[in-house]
Amino acid sequence: MYAIIKCGGKQYKVTEGDIIDIDYTGKTAKETFEITDVLAVNDGELKTGDTVAAAKVEAEVVLDGTGVNRDKKVIIYKKRRRKDSKLKRGFRKSFTKIRITKIAA
Length: 105
Hints:
mainly beta; 0% helix; 105 residues; 60% strand; four-stranded antiparallel β-sheet
């Protein structure tokens, strides 16, 4: 059984026991919450639309990604040729690592 959920503007295909990184939510470790924005559920047959309106996915926060536990650094480098103009910046995205505990369809 798997579900397709929408979280933070992105879509994830999840099954029970999966550990995924989502955008930072501000929740602390070992906190549980529900994701009600379920797009599809497959438990032998694929259900979408109004048939999954009552479906929800329960998740537990494994790791809060603030401070030291942020993502890898992404380097943004802009250069304009023949202009002696360049710009280099780095960015580290905060995330929340969650474990899917239950899919209720």
